[in-house]
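To: structure subgroup
Subject: Chain for Friday's discussion

All,

I'm putting the inputs and outputs inline so they're searchable in the archive.
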Amino acid sequence: MYHPSGELLFQENTGGMTSIDTSGKYMAAYVPGSKTLSLYHSFAKIHTQTTEFPIGTVAVADNGMFAVSVTDASGGAVYVYDSDFRLTYTWMIEGGFVFDLAISPDGKSVAAMILSFSSGSYFTELTVKNIRTDGTVVSENFEGKTPVCVEFFSNGGFFASVDGMISFYRTSGEKISQTEVS
């Protein structure tokens, strides 16, 4: 990690191909398939989280909350932790694998792009959950499409991208637009 002046503040060997997610204030570093992730702010490591199952992906919110997807032989789960590193929400995933994960800047919602298979074909499922009520904000399937990413905007709106297409949504889950991309 570097200071804006270019000075190296610290470095750490994570023991594999490291993935990173940042929120602007916080950063999570982990090796997909491992059971440990590290959280940082701009000056130091602030927490190490260990999971029971292998980590798929991690997302960090501006307020310090973070979400972790894990996978085992029977499916997976998304765990959401508060800024004090306490588990506050668990979402069990059946019949698919979390391909990408995002948490809203305020930590109120978590979104997942889930790659699912059924009757020999595949589809991507976008699901956004309100972690305070466990309500589903949006659930949409994209038949025959491969997931790319999901991300929140600073106002709580979000977008989901599958191969060849991006969809934009309001905080409420209402789809604003959908556009094809190449």
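Points worth raising on Friday:
The chain has a mean pLDDT of 89.
The radius of gyration is 17 Å.

D.
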